[in-house]
Give the backbone structure.
Amino acid sequence: MSAHRPRYRLAGRIARHVLLVVSATFALLPFVWMISLSLKPPDEIFQPDFHLWPKTFHGVENYRVALTAAPMLRFLLNGVFVCAIIFVLQLMVCVPCAYALAKLRFRGRDTLFSAVLVGLLVPPQALAIPHFVLLHVFGLLDTYAALILPWIISAFGIFLLRQFFRSIPDEIIHAARLDGLGEFEIIWRIMIPMSTPALAAFGIFSVVAHWNDLFWPLIAVRSEDISTPALGILLFRDDEAGQFLGPLMAGATIIVAPLLLAFLLAQRRFIDGLATTAMK
Amino acid sequence: MAEIELRGIEKRYGEAPVLKDVSLKIKDGEFLTLVGPSGCGKSTLLRIIAGLEDQDAGEVSVGGRPVDGARPKDRDVAMVFQSYALYPHLTVFDNIALPLRTRQLSFAQRLPLIGPLLPGHTGIERSIRKEVEQAAAMLDVAHLLHRKPGQLSGGQRQRVALGRAMVRHPTVFLMDEPLSNLDARLRVQMRTEITSLHRRLGVTFVYVTHDQSEAMTMADRVAVMMGGELLQVGPPEELYREPQDLRVAEMIGSPKINIVARAHWADDRSVLSAALAPQAKHLAFRPEAAVLITPADGVTNGTVTDLENLGSDIFVHVALRDGSETVVIRTTPDERRFSLGSTVGLKVDAARLMQFDEAGRRCGNIERVAAA
């Protein structure tokens, strides 16, 4: 009996790894393909035989075109600007809301929290037209404001932070009140420093979502000057897309790179934050 | 001057009443403990004094000034919590300094980055540093000022919490079971530290605990609470010797007071040799209010079922006659020893026998004993 068990366990482990390798390959393949294409000359891209590494290295040329044909740097800066402002404004709304829902006692609190949960269920696409009309009425279409304003109230952020704040003991807040801190100072001096894992997790969700978002910028913005990276990359996709596939992939790589880098750096925080919020 | 006066405090959570018409006067500079089983409302009462919760009815005044509706920080009270409630992201120094900073620095001076550049900031910070260091030295945590709470032991955290409470010289100290997270030895040591702190500061202490021995050893006066009511308030001695309620008698004293049904002893005149009040239903006596004798001399016989030898005392558990009731008698090692299973007689000191009526209220010999 006992002789079989290690072998059985080994088989299980191999099976697990095979499964993980296969699914990881499927997830990574498009990325690898993208990078591979961004290094190839146009004629090699559509060849029937497949090489991961190009026969003639065309990477420098592709990346040069990607960086010069469109104002790529501008797109990237727009992306950083828009994502940063969205995140900061989201925090300014979410943190006090989450604090009130988690720690203050007032009439209608539970109803309000249910409203937040309902807000989680509404897909952002469903709100695109009302948002568009609103921004049109205020004359804000095709501005940075159009990219930012619809996102500053995040039901997800309120929910995530509220769950985390609930895990902070009431006694700490009582102590802070006795020490003379006002409610906003409690948020600023006590809650925020104690919630960095949750804030980091929310930050990654928010930035990834808005950095990659194509749907809303496509609706709200036309000018090249304020395009975000995802929108800017569409500029490569004209009638001669075939010709420009190499630079297009190079552009895509450039856009994805900052996120990948940020994720790798913040990976542990991200997972910690998710794990703690999931437990409470 | 900071006497505390509570008048007719009521509190309910939803339908359940937590405090029922609690009135209590706490004198300036007094050490009062609120003792009771968990869920009796003692912590709620403390939080109402602190202003962390609002009462549904009744008034609170601190130092002769009504504070109903006043914010916690305007009441001049400090509180120490069971979990210490230290700010985990701040160093010990910053933890202790926080109440001083919020009081002495203006809003602008407290702002990050800009604050330290404003005039007056440096001087105030210097005086805060001095006060924090003084408090830390007094509590023997001066060497820990740069650490975070997570790096401290339970006892050290407790001291830091005390430091944070006393650094701004409040006139009232509120403590919510501050010792219950410590191990037994440290708890006894911290008891004496807190009482000596009380003597040095000379301010009013209100101390909540469920541990009757803490209440007895530390307090000037003890208030016993149960089910949201104050049962009795008085010096520890008085609660021990003259409990006015059966529940108080049971709560105070270790080992517990012996209670037997009157019916059991109705005919044993020789054991009791005391006149019982007609309405008395329960008879109670402390473990030291009775002596064990050989069965020939005594009338009530029992069997020794257990012996607890503490060195200085031996507690003898005696099952009375049919074994339905057991009493505990304190004997000293010098007295005659009784072995397990032996039959003994019991003689209760009539002057120290307490009588309680059906509802648990004291009756019978109260006046006589109180006068003696």
Chain B has twelve helices and 19 strands. The interface with chain A takes residues 47, 50-52, 71-73, 77-79, 81-83, 85-89, 98-99, 102-103, 110, 164 of chain B (CB under 8 Å). Chain B has a mean pLDDT of 87.
